[in-house]
Amino acid sequence: MLIILDRDGVINAYEDGDYICRPEDWIPLPGSIEAIARLSRAGHKVAVATNQSGVGRGFYTEQTLAVMHDRLRELVQRSGGQIDHVAWCPHLPSEGCDCRKPGTGLLVQIRDALALDTLDGSWLVGDSRTDLEAGQKAGCQLALVRTGNGRNTEEGLKMAPLGTVDVFNSLSEFANAILQRTD
Ligand SMILES: [Mg+2]
Ligand SMILES: [Zn+2]
Q: How far is the centre of ligand 2, averaged over its atoms, from the C-alpha of 100 (Å)?
């Protein structure tokens, strides 16, 4: 199964409105790396889809972003798993690109990079409503984690529901549930 993860607030610590500008500010959440590695070792494909308008805003460069993503890949590899693709959108909201979530461009990029016919049934794991909206449009199953912006998003979903969304305390708990279902 393909599992698409948002990055900030799902894999690494994040507060709403923040930008992760320096590699040293990219700090994995407890258990997140191991969770990715466990999913990967169980045969799932794991990809990352992340909005990084900080590039477009000039807060950090694509090279800096690449350093963070190399570190992510390395940490997961050290735990015995792998990240199959990382897709990121550098654009500002005002640019009107189709990749910035809630657009589906990043998800389509992942589908094509992994040579899949469809995203139907894949999982989208996010901490923001925009993640879930993108996943919903692409036909993904939706999971919200309560890390990062997740608790605010959960509150928002009570006011304006968005179909079926499974809620987990963390990426680690999501991984536990997936691994139990498919064992
Ligand atoms: Mg996020
Ligand atoms: Zn974009």
A: 4
User: Rounded distance, CA 116 to CA 68, Å?
Assistant: 26
Number of domains in the chain: 1
**Predicted local confidence at residue 182, as pLDDT:** 55
* Percentage of the chain modeled with pLDDT above 90: 96
Of 8, 84, 127, 131, catalytic: 8
CATH of the domain at 73: 3.40.50.1000
pLDDT of 85 over the 80 cut: yes
Q: 14-40: b or e for each residue (b if 16 or more CB lie within 10 Å)?
A: beeeeebbeeeebebbeebbbbbbbbb
Interhelix angle 32-41/62-78, rounded to 10 degrees, is 60
